[in-house]
Every structure is written in structure tokens, then in C-alpha cells.
Amino acid sequence: MTTEETEIIKENMGFIYKIANHFYGAEKEDLFQAGALAMVNAYRSFKDDGTTKFTSYAFKPIFGEMFKLATQKQIKMSKDYLKLYRSIETARYSLAQKWGYIPTNEEISFYLEKDVSIIEQAIIAGSIIVSSLDKATEEDRSIYETVASEEPISWDDKLLLQEGLEQLNEVERKIIEYRYFKDMTQSEVARVLKKNQVMVSRYEKRGIDKIRDFYAA
């Protein structure tokens, strides 16, 4: 690493740490190291055309490296929470039918033999995960249907998509990666894959449906 590259990292430490704060499940210093390396690589490939700030250019590779570092543990955590959340909702429904009223979290924790704090955490986390997946049915706010913007989709949504990619065929996987990890519009994806936009939209919807079914299994 050159002196100039070291200075770039020093000048942008706050920027790197700010991105690291979006993640949990990995040590902040490990995230910083991954982000710093990505920043150096971005600096080496950056061409200053006077229209793009270096930090704007570097954001995606830094985010991507941190995302890869944090993903493995968080995917497992998200899926475990989702399974427990489904068990909680099933228990809530069964007990309500049996007792004639909606059981409290304390009653559900006793029924499932889980600490009430774990039950409460799973309810919060599971609600967020399910809400993210259900966004696909909201016509005007869905991350799956909107045109890509300069801002990336949330880390939680990318987390859900990441593991689900393994369930898709090659075309579906490429479309999801282009749309939600490279922030391309359907029209841009269609040009890259030499398909019309209607086909891209259909493959995208099919891929999202498979991912949703994977998490519901």
C-alpha cells in the first residue's frame, strides 16, 4: 500500500466507519479493515471525471465487502428467527382457539419453553423479515418492482435476497443480482441480457417468488 493510499484511508476513516455502522454480527474493526481494503481498490480504479465524487464511487465496493463479511452469520440468525417467529404465531393461534383469548408473550414463552426475552426478540425480528418479503405485494413501495435509484436497497433486504439466490436458475439469479446488488433498472438488465423488459420482469417476479417460498419453507 502506498503512502497516498494510506492517506486516503486516514482522510475517510469517518466515512468507512459510518458504513460499518449499518452492520451487526461482525466486529467493527473487522468491518473497517474490509472497508479500507475496498476503498484502496476503488481508489486504484477511480477515474476523476469531475462529475463523480470519490466517496460516491467507493460506497458500493465498501458496502459490498462489509456485506460479505457480515452475511454468513446474519443469514443464519435471520432464518432462525423466522422459524421461531412462525412457531410463535402458530402457538398464538392454537392457544387462542383453545383458550378463547389471545395469549400473552409470557404464556407463549411457557408453552414453547423459551425465555420470554427470546420470544420478544423473535417477534420483532420476524416481523421485520416478513414485512420485507411482503413488500413485493405493495405496488408503489415494493423494492422488487421499483426502478433502481442511486441509493442501494436496505441491508436487511439484501440479506434476505443473498441466500435465496442459491435457489434460482442462472437467468433469475443474474437478474436479481443486476437489479438489487448493482442497482440496475429493468431496462438496463434487458439490454445486458438481450431480453425484452417484459421477460426480465417475469423472471424477476419468479425469482422473488422462489426466494419468498424458500423462507416460508
Name its key features.
217 residues, mainly alpha, Arc Repressor Mutant, subunit A, 10 helices, 72% helix, 0% strand
The first-to-last residue Cα distance is 47 Å
Shape, per Cα inertia axes: flat
Stretches where pLDDT falls below 50 for ≥5 residues? 132-152
**How helical, in percent, are the residues?**
over 70%
Architecture of the domain at 139-217, according to CATH? Orthogonal Bundle
Oligomer: single chain
The top level CATH class name of the domain at 139-217 = Mainly Alpha
Q: Structural class, please?
A: mainly alpha
What share of the residues does DSSP label as strand, in percent?
under 5%
DSSP summary: helix tally: 10
- In CATH terms, the superfamily of the domain at 139-217 is Winged helix-like DNA-binding domain superfamily/Winged helix DNA-binding domain
Mean pLDDT: 77
- Topology order in helix (H) and strand (E) letters: HHHHHHHHHH
